Amino acid sequence: MILCFCEGIGSRDGTAKKDKDFKGKAQKQVQFNPGQTRATWRVRILSDGQHEQSETFQVVLSEPVLAALEFPAVTTVEIVDPGDGTARGTVPTSVLSYSDYISRPEDHTSVIRFDKDEREKMCRVVIIDDSLYEEKETFHVLLSMPMGGRIGSEFPGAQVTIIPDKDDGKY
User: Fold this and answer.
1) Rounded distance, CA 149 to CA 5, Å?
2) pTM of the predicted model, to two decimals?
3) 17-36 pLDDT, tens per residue?
4) Distance separating alpha carbons of residues 76 and 113, to the nearest angstrom
5) What gap in Å lies between CA 168 and CA 89, rounded to an integer?
6) In degrees, to the nearest 5, what angle opens at C-alpha 10 toward C-alphas 72 and 160?
7) Do 104 and 60 reside in the same domain of the chain?
8) Per-residue pLDDT at 1
9) What is the dihedral of CA 85, 86, 87, 90, to 10 degrees?
10) Where is average pLDDT lowest: 66-70, 80-84, 151-155?
11) Domain that holds residue 35
């Protein structure tokens, strides 16, 4: 029986800051048994009482022992406070009355292919016109899980802003 150990799991601040927006106790060792591909690491999201857009931080595995880290060794976590006026996504099969856009599925249909030296691509996102008056709302489209390349750290995604529709009744 061969066990895989990582010498550490921890976090890396992004727009969300440790001990201000979240708490996650770094661990010195994480054990993966043979065939195990997932492990749980608890993170507590903190409410700071401020109106903010979504914030992100990263969870990082490091220094494997008797093994190699495969993709992904780092994952990004997004903190979204529904009370802060951000848009809400939904899957096409369950469009709800409070949904603002249709989320892209996390499967092969959402793959965006970049040719050599290509730096921009269109990514279709469907905005739902629910005819309700709502203030300006935002959401992020993030690139993840690169295959055969890498995602630049400066622009890993884009913020989309849904502006109020002048034809919607203001209540």
Assistant:
1) 27
2) 0.47
3) 899 888 888 777 777 777 77
4) 21
5) 20
6) 60
7) no
8) 40
9) -110
10) 80-84
11) 1-81
